[in-house]
Write a structure and sequence with these properties.
This protein is 49% helix and 8% strand. Helix 1 runs antiparallel to helix 2, helix 2 runs parallel beside helix 5 and helix 2 packs across helix 9.
Length: 534
């Protein structure tokens, strides 16, 4: 009887669902091809080879008999079943070990070191240098650790050729450049690995991930048409808004990089910046717009406006991703699942999210957050109310944005009515930010034209809540903003004692409650009713 060729699995079959075993060599090749595709916007020599090799080697440790028998319950040599007995069999360190070189031959900071860290971390995430080296040393001390590599080459003859291609990759990186590359490699690998596994084991779920949304071209065309209709009357306010909007979008042809949009409150900054981003992305072959907003209390309103302008009946073209999102309230189960799945990797043309979500993902070490960041490449990032970025973290944030612009085909739009002077920060080094181009160069004259508020500042003595409440009760339509949530509640209680129709807004409320109050405020204002809000 002829010898049976060993059959190695990446994942066990699901006989009850008609799903066959996921062959390991098929999985490795598929992940390698996906990972290489995910790096198409990286401006780094040799990146295609690096990502392809990451996919080929990431599950090299699954060629261990211990993994096949103990974890998958499968004997690749006989084809007979084993009862799974082991958990936590390390299958990611072996691939990292094959590409990592000792420090004296390959100083940390090379692309191969970044590759080894990404392979080792594709399940557990990134660890510090000492823990990483300790993990590889433990893998090297395993008895007969080279045997799985020989089995892999026998099962997958092209493995050696793919690994040898790494000899052409020699770029040395350091600091932020090395950190970002490591995270980007890990992101591509994790997303490719999970999508390929999902496609094999749960094709229905994978199909929802690929549901059709409109392209940037269609979204841009819709927004342009609706903006023309919005600003077609001749009131002074709309004339000024139209002038500013036209100046902003006229600069979409400028080369990618950093941009500043300084526009007075009420000037239409949100839609102007989105329109610029869509046109700029189309002009320069970028693939998505990521709109970052600092507060969940205003992100709902922004996403709602975007939907009104960009969705036709029955469509959903906007991925809204933040901690207060309520996917269970979506109109269909498919849309709920789509929102959940796409929140994992942001693979959609327009993402509305929080600045916290953007930067916590870019600086993360866990795979769940890192998975999406490769899809930030080839994007226009709009940072609304940029003055709210935390001052204690501005150094690393600006360095990171600079790296994204320089090596990952990203443009950044810094939006606000009160543009911060980043160059004044001690230790400022982000040359790209310093060279930001203004989308509205003559902004000061528009601030004067749209001045609609007079400020009277009196800090000579503390003002008691009762005095403020008395001032509010003298005005039928008034908004009072205080510094602390408990202060808002105290003032509201005083006002409500005289005006039971008074309204209270606070992040103490659930998001759905805030939405109801905001809708109630809009209705009261539209009806001309009294509206006192704390």
């Amino acid at each position: 009887m002829p010898n049976r060729k060993p059959e190695y699995w990446a994942h066990s079959p699901k006989p009850n669902d008609g799903i066959p075993p996921h062959l390991l060599r098929v999985h490795l090749l598929s992940v390698a091809e996906r990972a290489r595709e995910f790096g198409s916007y990286f401006k780094i020599p040799g990146i295609a080879t690096l990502l392809f090799t990451a996919g080929i080697l990431h599950d090299l440790g699954k060629y261990k008999l211990e993994f096949q028998r103990g974890r998958l319950g499968h004997d690749p040599e006989s084809g007979t079943g084993y009862w799974p007995k082991k958990r936590g069999v390390d299958h990611s360190s072996l691939g990292a070990l094959t590409v990592y070189r000792p420090r004296e031959d390959n100083p940390e900071g090379s692309m191969l070191d970044a590759l080894a860290r990404a392979i080792a971390g594709h399940h557990a995430g990134l660890v510090d240098a000492a823990a990483f080296r300790g993990r590889l040393e433990a893998a090297r001390n395993e008895p007969d650790w080279r045997s799985p590599i020989l089995d892999a080459v026998a099962d997958f003859p092209d493995l050696t050729e793919h690994a040898n291609a790494l000899s052409e990759v020699a770029l040395q990186l350091s600091g932020t450049s090395f950190d970002v590359l490591t995270r980007m490699l890990l992101s591509c690998l994790v997303d490719a690995d999970r999508i390929d596994t999902e496609a094999h084991l749960d094709s229905a779920r994978n199909a929802v991930r690929s549901r059709k949304v409109q392209t940037l071209e269609v979204l841009d065309r819709r927004l342009t048409a609706r903006m023309a209709g919005l600003m077609n009357d001749s009131t002074q306010l709309n004339r000024i808004r139209r002038e500013m909007y036209e100046q902003v979008v006229a600069r979409a042809a400028l080369e990618p990089g950093f941009f500043r949009l300084t526009m007075p409150t009420g000037g239409g900054k949100t839609l102007a910046s989105l329109s610029f981003a869509l046109k700029h992305a189309r002009r320069h072959g970028l693939r998505r717009v990521i709109y970052g907003i600092p507060y969940t209390s205003i992100i709902d309103q922004t996403a709602r406006v975007f939907r009104e302008f960009l969705n036709d009946d029955g469509e959903e073209n906007i991925l809204e991703h933040h901690s207060a999102i309520e996917p269970k309230n979506s109109s269909s189960e498919e849309l709920q699942l789509w929102t959940s799945l796409l929140s994992e990797n942001w693979d959609t043309p327009l993402v509305v999210t929080t600045t916290v979500q953007i930067f916590e993902s870019l600086f993360a070490n866990k795979t769940g957050r890192l998975r999406k960041i490769h899809n930030i490449t080839g994007s226009v990032i709009v940072l609304d109310e940029v003055q709210t970025l935390p001052t204690t973290l501005l150094g690393p944030i600006l360095d990171l944005l600079n790296e994204l612009v320089e090596r990952y085909h990203v443009s950044v739009v810094l939006c606000t009515a009160t543009q911060p002077t980043f160059e004044a920060i001690e230790g400022f080094t982000s040359t790209g930010v310093a060279e930001s181009r203004d989308l509205l160069p003559n902004a000061p004259e528009y601030f004067d034209a749209l001045q609609r508020v007079d400020y009277a500042i009196d800090i000579s003595a503390p003002t008691p809540w009762t005095a403020i409440a008395e001032q509010m009760l003298l005005n039928p339509s008034v908004l009072t903003i205080v510094n602390l949530r408990r202060h808002a509640r105290e003032l509201y209680d005083i006002v409500r004692a005289e005006d039971p129709q008074a309204l209270h807004l606070s992040t103490y409320m659930y998001p759905v409650h805030r939405k109801e109050v905001l809708a109630h405020i809009s209705q009261r204002l539209n009806n001309g009713d009294s509206c006192r809000v704390v």
